[in-house]
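Methods: holo model generation. Sequences were used as deposited, without trimming of termini or removal of tags, and paired with ligand SMILES retrieved from the corresponding compound records. Each pair was processed once, and we did not select among multiple samples. The sequence and pyridoxal-5'-phosphate SMILES for this entry were:
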Amino acid sequence: MQRDPGALAAALAQLDRAQLQRVRRVNHARRPHASMIDNSGAPLEFCSNDYLGLARHPAVVRAFVRAAERYGVGSGASHLVTGHGPEHAALEEQVAAYTGRERALCFSSGYLANLGVIDALIERRDQLLQDRLNHASLLDAARLAGATLQRYPHNDALAAERMLSTRTAANTLIATDGVFSMDGDIAPLPALARLASAQNAWLLVDDAHGLGVLGRTGRGTCEHYQLDSNAVPILIGTFGKAFGTCGAFVAGSADLIEFLLQKSRTYIYTTALPPAIAAATRAALELSEAESWRREKVLALVERFRSGALAREIPLTDSTTPIQPVLLGSAARALAVSRALDVRGIRVAAIRPPTVPPGTARLRITFSANHDEAAIDHLVGTLAQALAANPAVA
Ligand SMILES: *Cc1c(COP(=O)(O)O)cnc(C)c1O
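and the model returned the structure below.
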């Protein structure tokens, strides 16, 4: 971008013409429970990643407040200086036990975790393979590491294998989302794990959207496929999705974690998470197990949405997770339908390029255990009307 009078304004005008300008809204009236019985007048939201409804859970809030009263708000320093407190240490141990890994390391965000883990493990000449639709933070990590990024077609483990067989690099890392953030579908982890193991490559799974939701006990995509830490040696998770707080972790072998602690720049050179966030996250992890009805409920709501949408001929994908995209193609139509829903008190995000590939603009509808059945039925009816009122233009 040139520092030339008018260059930024011209670029902004161009975004606006293409209907790709992003607009923030100040969300004043967040409903504690997204129920139809709520008469607050606040919109019904179907776009948060708070899948289990833990972000406002009283026990999570209480853990946060108590820890803030005890330790203050800011951690005051990075982990390797004086920022690492008892709540952080306890959270690491809890995450290691929860994920069935030897150790875990907590980062201030998932974005930083992905940058820091890949940058530490991969050097310029190494081979880095990623699914085309991986989260931006995984793709951006390739730039920080200075490695050439090879992107294989979405969920195509055979294509990944072909790319690997021509490799000359000594060290290879394959990275994939567990559940894809804009599509809701699940990565073919068994095939990728076999491939990684046969080629002696690292496999990194970013399970931001699978943890807490998938698998018999909510342990995520690895549990869904019954894959252990040998099959998936590097597991990344975030706390800002199903666990309702913020921050992230990497879990793996003791040596992997010690190496990352020594080398990961986005771990070392940043202020440690507030201890109260660590305390709240510990409470949320416990609740995700103790209140397993939350996982069952959100998955039942997904089923209800899908059968209602099918009956109304709303176009769905194969996703079975709480991320249910409705593909609309053009950015203009996605925006128009999102606005039509908004007028009727329903908030659903229109996702446009560059977040998704050109021509695949969509509504990204997400569900939470805080929704109820009436809210789902209301969404289906209103969405069918909004789609009919805003047909695709040829
Ligand atoms: C949200 C998300 C991240 C980033 O996590 P933050 O903690 O929000 O920075 C990384 N990967 C995936 C797949 C995500 O969905």
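The CA atoms of residues 5 and 11 lie 12 Å apart.
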